[in-house]
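Step 1: inspect the first sequence and its tokens.
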Amino acid sequence: MMPVNDKKMLSPALASSPGFLLNKAARTLRDAVTEALKPVGLLPPELGILRVVHDEEAAAQSVVAERCFLDRTTVTALIDNLEQRKLLVREASTTDRRQKIVRLTPLGRQILTRGSKAATRAQQEFFQIVLPEEWEVMRQCLVRYIEAVPAE
């Protein structure tokens, strides 16, 4: 009888496929972060919106979409939902009445803090098998790629 190996072995063909590897890793990480955010009541893209609004204090909604690398329609729907839940407020710009400025509410700041902590824990757990210097190289490569590709 042959010993059973509990370690999963990836097919060599898939191990050399960037598309498969990136997709599988992204799906696994997304699922982990989604699960970690459930008690906070957020989805990963909503947390992303809150983070950008926090970083870009008093940002125009169009800037939030640009910084998230998402189309304006998607961001509008996400912001609508976050506004209904009293996590964000939209105000008319004082310089351009056509623009909407997005701000975090006090509740939005609380939820952002809780969501960020939950997402960070899930990400740290996901990346525990990667050395910090390996992650930094991977991070730099991914940022370079994302910034080079047109927004969705």
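Step 2: inspect the second sequence and its tokens, then contrast the two.
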Amino acid sequence: MNPPEQPLQRIAPDVKLGTNVRIFSFTNLYGCEIGDDVKIGTFVEIQKGSKIGNRCKISSHTFICEGVTLEDEVFVGHNVVFTNDRYPRSTNGTGQLQSEADWACIPTLIKRGASIGSGAVLLCGITVGENAMIGAGSVVTKDVPAGATVVGNPARLVKLRPPKN
């Protein structure tokens, strides 16, 4: 008889997990904070210094790098990528491989209730407003207002909903 299948996960001891967090196989979490009632899909990596709010859903194949904050009730579609460096380089000025001392992490903030469509790429240093919608495959290069829907490459405004009271 075969032993029961164990999920293949790497959850470092420094991860702060809330209650009722569901984490699927092939995930890699380290140095991050995960709120309550969060669902993290297969093949997701969440790096140190990232903060995930309560009741978020992070779909499979997503990469959340250092410096990203998702407030409560954020939806992240499949294969979404965040960045944290505007000018990534392999080596520093002396030709050595870069280390953490050679660059500064640029934070990104996704506000409450925002939704990010599958395949989107979000460049660092932006804020996505409350209840905003990022269309699938969009490349977000600048701030997105609350209630806005943006699509395309680069992402552009197609609709602006009035804020909820």
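Step 3: confirm your contrast with the notes below.
The longest strand covers residues 156-160. The chain has one domain: 9-86+104-160.
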